[in-house]
From TrEMBL:
Residues 1-13 have a biased composition (Gly residues). GO terms for biological process: protein transport. The lineage of its organism: Eukaryota, Viridiplantae, Streptophyta, Embryophyta, Tracheophyta. Residues 41-103 form the T-SNARE coiled-coil homology domain. This is t-SNARE coiled-coil homology domain-containing protein. Belongs to the BET1 family. It is found in: Endoplasmic reticulum membrane; Golgi apparatus membrane.
Length: 135
């Protein structure tokens, strides 16, 4: 594995001492000062277990990402369906208001007079009932 060093120089590892991560991993100096070589010590060979663990974590993360993707698609479809339903409802309300306005214009505005007369009649009944109940 070749990698660029940070140009630290001065260590016995060819300037790559910052890259030493743990026991079992060390670097060897190379002829070129820009490259390092990583040597894995077989005594500390639990790296296979760590790689297996990392693979399982990557697999879990991939499964989570796939679940997130499927949920996002479901939510997107749901929102699109909801938008279409709202648009249809708005169109229906607009058509009903248009029909109601045509009906009001055609039949005249007498319905407002009827509502006001009904309200006055109800007020009068409640007033008379309250006067009668005090006696």
């Amino acid at each position: 594995m070749a990698s660029r060093s940070s140009g630290g120089g001065g260590s016995i590892y060819g300037g790559a001492a910052p890259y030493r991560s743990r026991e079992g991993l060390s670097t060897r100096p190379m002829a070129s000062s820009d490259e390092i070589q990583l040597r894995i010590d077989p005594i500390h060979g639990d790296l296979d277990d760590e790689i297996t663990g990392l693979r399982s974590q990557v697999r879990q993360l991939r499964n989570v990402a796939q679940e997130i993707e499927s949920e996002a698609k479901y939510q997107k479809d749901f929102l699109e369906t909801l938008q279409m339903t709202v648009m249809k409802a708005q169109a229906g309300v607009k058509n009903n208001i248009r029909k109601l306005n045509k009906s009001i214009i055609k039949n005249g505005g007498n319905h407002i007079v009827h509502v006001v007369l009904f309200a006055l009649f109800c007020f009068m009944v409640v007033y008379l009932w309250s006067k009668m109940s005090r006696r």
